[in-house]
Design brief:
alpha+beta; 3 domains; three-stranded antiparallel β-sheet; 17 helices; 21% strand
C-alpha cells in the first residue's frame, strides 16, 4: 500500500537536477523514495496535449494532460512526486504461513480420495518407524535391568580386599570389614552391601545336600534388581528374627516340594553351627543356573558359617553411589583403605556396573534393519504422493492461472502447492504416531518385548519427533516437483485452458 505526497519548490525556476538533489538531501535517512515526474515543455507551450513521463521500476508511464490545464501541468512539472511505502505489518508473514497451511488443508480435504492411498502407505511407514524406536526403548530398558541384576546399578563401586605384590602377609579380613563399615558410615552411603560367600549343608527330605550361601544386606535387592517368583526379599527387620530369614533359588524350592510360603517352611542348615532358617522368598528360575543356593543377611551368615568365612578371600563390598561422584569416591576409598592397612598394601577399588564396560548396544543392528525398512516404505509412499500431486496440479492449471492474474506471486504458488503435500504427510504422520503409541504401550506387547521389566519407560518423545520429522521431510520432497510445475504455468495459457 503506498500514497503520494507532493512537495513544491520554493523557486519557480532553476535546474531540476539541483532541485531533485535538494529534495533527496531532505529525505536522507528516511524510508521515503524519490520519483521525479517530468513533462515536455514544447507540447504544453504550444497548447497541445502533453505527456507527463514518470519513471517506474518497470519503465516509463505517460500521463496525458488536457490542453486547458497546461499551465497547471507546467507548474507541476517543477515539483517532485514522492512515493512512500508503508512497511508490512509484523504479523503478515506469520498470517501468510498460517493461511497457506489452512488453504493446503482445505485442498487435501477436497481431494482426499486422490491422496488417501498414498497417505496410507506413509502412515504405515511412520507407525513402523515410531514403533521401532519406542519398542527399542522398552527393550533397551529390559537389557539395562538385566545388566543391573548381574553387575549392579550405575554407579556401583566394587571394593575388594587389598593385596601385597609379594604376598608376604595374609589378609586380615576383620580389619577390611571394619574399614569398609567405617567408610560407609563416614560418607553416608545409603545403598551398600557386603558380599560374603560360603557353603553349608542342608538337610532335605531326600538327604543332605551342599548349598552355596551368600551373606548380603537388604540393599542388595535394590542394587541388583532381584526378581522373585514367590514371597519377598530380605529386610532390615529380619535381623531381629531368632530364626534367620533366607531367600532360596527355584531349584532349592523344588527340592522342598514347593510348599506355600504362608505356612513358613523351614530348612535345617549345618555350618559351624546348626541353624533352622525360615524361607521368605524364592528367586525366579534362571536358565543356566545349577545347584542349590540361598541368600541371608550378613550377621546370620557369620553366625552360621563362622570364622572360616572371615578368612576367605571372596569377601567384598559394593557401594551404589551417584555416577557423577563415582570417580572421586573411588580415590577417597582407596586412600582410606591404604591408610588403614599401612604401607605395602594396594587397594582394589573399581566400578563394576555395565556402564563401565562400554561397547555398542546389542539392539543397534536390529534398530538399523527395521529403521531401514520403514525408511523404504516412506520413500515408496512419497513417490506415490508425487504422482498424485502432479496429476492434481494438471487439473488445477486454470485455478493457478486465475490466482497469478489476481496478483499471486510465484513464491506464493510454490509454497501453497508444496504445503499441500507437507500437510497431508504430517496428518498421516500424526495418525501413525498415535497408532505406534497404542501398540508400544499395550501391556501384551510390552510383556512380549520385555517380560519382567520393573521400570517401564513412557513412550519416548524423540520417537514421535523423528517420525513426524520424517513425514514432513517426505512431504516436502514429494511436493517439490509439483510446486515447480505449478510455478512454470503461464497466466495467459492457464486462463485459456
Amino acid at each position: 500500500m503506498s500514497w503520494w505526497r507532493t512537495r513544491k519548490r520554493d523557486s519557480p525556476s532553476g535546474d531540476s537536477a539541483t532541485d531533485a538533489a535538494a529534495v533527496s538531501s531532505e529525505l536522507e535517512g528516511s524510508d521515503e523514495s524519490l520519483i521525479e515526474a517530468t513533462i515536455d515543455p514544447e507540447s504544453t507551450v504550444a497548447g497541445t496535449e502533453g505527456g507527463l513521463t514518470v519513471p517506474t521500476p518497470s519503465g516509463s508511464a505517460n500521463v496525458t494532460a488536457e490542453p486547458e490545464a497546461s499551465a497547471d501541468v507546467v507548474a507541476r512539472s517543477r515539483s517532485s512526486e514522492l512515493v512512500v511505502s508503508r512497511p508490512e505489518p509484523r504479523g503478515a508473514i506469520v498470517s501468510g504461513v498460517v493461511g497457506a497451511v489452512v488453504e493446503a488443508w482445505d485442498e487435501v480435504r477436497i481431494n482426499r480420495t486422490r491422496v488417501l492411498l498414498s497417505l496410507i502407505g506413509i502412515g504405515v511407514a511412520v507407525c513402523a518407524l515410531a514403533t521401532v524406536v519406542g519398542a527399542g526403548t522398552v527393550f533397551g530398558q529390559a537389557q539395562t535391568e538385566q545388566f543391573e541384576r548381574g553387575s549392579g546399578r550405575p554407579a556401583t563401586i566394587a571394593v575388594y580386599p587389598p593385596f601385597q605384590e609379594n604376598g608376604a602377609q595374609n589378609l586380615d579380613t576383620t580389619t577390611f570389614v571394619a574399614s569398609m563399615e567405617s567408610i560407609i558410615e563416614r560418607y553416608q552411603v545409603s545403598h551398600a552391601t557386603p558380599l560374603l560367600r560360603g557353603s553349608v549343608t542342608a538337610n532335605l527330605v531326600n538327604g543332605t545336600q551342599y548349598t552355596a550361601v551368600q551373606g548380603v544386606s537388604a540393599a542388595y535387592g535394590v542394587m541388583h534388581r532381584v526378581e522373585l517368583g514367590e514371597g519377598r526379599w530380605l529386610t532390615n527387620e529380619d535381623a531381629n528374627r531368632l530364626a534367620p530369614a533366607v531367600v532360596i533359588n527355584d531349584e532349592f524350592y523344588e527340592q522342598l516340594g514347593r510348599p506355600d510360603l504362608r505356612t513358613h517352611p523351614t530348612i535345617v542348615l549345618d555350618g559351624e553351627t546348626t541353624t533352622t532358617a525360615i524361607v521368605v522368598g524364592v528367586l525366579l528360575p534362571e536358565p543356566f543356573a545349577t545347584g542349590l543356593n540361598l541368600s541371608m543377611l550378613a550377621e546370620p551368615f557369620r553366625a552360621l558359617v563362622g570364622s572360616s568365612a572371615e578368612q576367605q578371600p571372596d569377601v567384598s563390598y559394593e557401594l551404589w553411589v551417584p555416577e557423577e561422584q563415582s570417580a572421586q569416591l573411588q580415590e577417597i576409598i582407596s586412600r582410606d583403605i591404604a591408610g588403614d592397612f599401612g604401607e605395602g598394601w594396594t587397594p582394589n577399588v573399581n566400578r563394576n556396573d555395565y556402564l563401565a564396560w562400554g561397547g555398542p548396544s546389542p539392539l543397534e543392528p536390529l534398530q538399523w534393519v527395521i529403521g531401514g525398512i520403514a525408511g523404504l516404505i516412506l520413500l515408496l509412499g512419497g513417490l506415490g504422493l508425487v504422482n498424485i500431486s502432479l496429476v492434481t496440479v494438471k487439473y488445477r492449471v486454470r485455478e493457478i492461472g486465475v490466482r497469478r492474474a489476481f496478483g499471486a506471486t510465484a513464491g506464493r504458488v510454490f509454497f501453497a502447492v508444496m504445503m499441500e503435500s507437507v500437510v497431508a504427510t504430517v496428518a498421516a504422520g500424526v495418525i501413525g504416531v498415535a497408532l505406534a503409541i497404542v501398540i508400544v504401550q499395550n501391556p501384551a506387547v510390552q510383556d512380549l518385548i520385555a517380560p519382567g521389566v520393573q521400570d517401564l519407560p513412557p513412550f519416548p518423545l524423540d520417537a514421535a519427533l523423528i517420525a513426524l520429522g520424517a513425514s514432513a521431510a517426505v512431504g516436502a520432497l514429494a511436493g517439490l516437483m509439483p510446486a515447480l510445475v505449478a510455478v512454470k504455468v503461464k497466466v495467459i495459457d492457464a486462463i485459456r485452458y
